[in-house]
Amino acid sequence: MLSLTTAQRDLLYLLLTTETPIGAAALGQSLHLTPRQVSYSLRSIKLWLARRHASLRQVPGVGIQLICSPLQRQRLHAELESQAKFQLILTPEQRGQLLGLVLLITPEPLTLNQLQHDLAVARTTVLKDLDVMELWLASFGLQVVRRQHRGCWIEGPELAKRQAIAALLWGDVPFSLPIITLQAGVGFDFVLQQDAALLPIIQRINSFLHELDLAEAQQQVIWAEAQLNARFSDQAISLLSLALALQQQRISAQHYLTWHPETLHWLEQQVVWPIASQLIIDYGLEQTPSARQAEIAGLSLQLVCAARERPWLKQRETDHVTHNLINRLIDLIATSYTVPALANDQLLRDGLEALIPPACNRQRFGLWVPTHQASETLSERYAAERRMADMIDRTLLATIGVTLPLDARAELILLLRAAVVRARPVQTRNILVVCPSGMATTQLLVARLKARFPKLGIFEVLSMRELSAERLAKADLVITTAPLALASVPIDVIQVHPMLHPEDIAALTQWMV
């Protein structure tokens, strides 16, 4: 008898409930499967359906559709519901994430025999999966210890363990498809949850997720935000909620943080310390003062490292070192751009005050944040802002010993671009538009230019024959839809498509700045 895997079952459920064609990519995205896994699973589904007088229709460019009568559809759904046993075939990436997480949350060593049983795989497979996760865990300063007759476990600081657990729960893993992600306002999305009964290791992870009270933790974060008169970013709220929920679970399991005396002293001086102390009251640490102090420090660290949407007024009043640093950076920016008005740009100052302190704290303490995705700030249009960001990084390194992490650097580049645009003087530019494709194309291009760049300047439409040295001498820019040979004339020329493509918009924006 042909039995289905859990992935094939989920695909078939989706096809049964979808009456219109659906693409393979959309199927995979809905079920956290790669295109290859979808293609492989569909082969078995076709055989399973053929024995029940149903079929799949696959049309390139249209999608995949189940072909059967409404009555057949009901019977197929009922048959799937009645089957109690499906094959659960995990990918190496899924096994690695389960293995890493169960080692992080299990206090005692786990033997290879136990891991074989819990994952239902061979001994050599467990060892290969361990090798992969060992490299990833090492990036957090954690070591997988293996001892014959004792098993394996993870050694390292408690803070590093919590950081690695948080990364796994967030879905920030070196694989294309994480098994767990955190959805803002919803909670954890564990793709293997409905199959928890099929493997002990999935049961263990599922139980652990239910121990984390994200909703209560988020209420505590919102309370702390109000007490600080602060405004955290949406992602920071989710990250803080995860950190608090995880902190409560680890404390209940009697896993406590430890700190270097200098770090502990520094954290005690921060404006967040009294607020963190209030939040820790209900954690049941009254009988262990040292653990209580360490956990207050841990929560304080999370708060001072969280991304902000506006400056902390309390910190502005008391932290003179940061205030002087921001003044120095503002002067550097205004001088480097030779735009004195930037020294009085309050939006720029507020942006730097909100961005730099938490970002530098994250860098200083090595606190994990989700992997930053490459953004458009790496493109050529932001070259000037990147050079300015390099100068700011060098100043930060010389002053406080750290540079900005990648995510904050991208934010800084956007802050700089916005400040430059605000400071740009309003001036009338003479723009020559050369479009040899005809009147209609010319009108379309000019209409798009005026809509996208209302302050670019005064547009004058010319033919190539009308381009004289006199006209060019009075112009600031030539926009053309065809190549122009003006090597002897010192004027900027930008070639664009009549439909004004994104790369054309980027080139014109860069020229304006």
Automatic annotation (TrEMBL):
Instruction: Give any GO molecular function from the UniProt entry.
Output: protein-N(PI)-phosphohistidine-sugar phosphotransferase activity
Entry annotated with the keyword Aminoacyl-tRNA synthetase: no
Q: Does the keyword Ribosomal protein apply?
A: no
Instruction: Identify the residues that the record assigns to the PTS EIIB type-2 domain, covering every copy.
Output: 429-513
Q: Which GO terms describe its biological process?
A: phosphoenolpyruvate-dependent sugar phosphotransferase system; regulation of DNA-templated transcription
Give the domain of life: Bacteria
PRD domain location is: 317-426
Tell me where the signal peptide lies.
none
Q: What is this protein called in UniProt?
A: PRD domain-containing protein
Which species is the source of this protein? Herpetosiphon geysericola
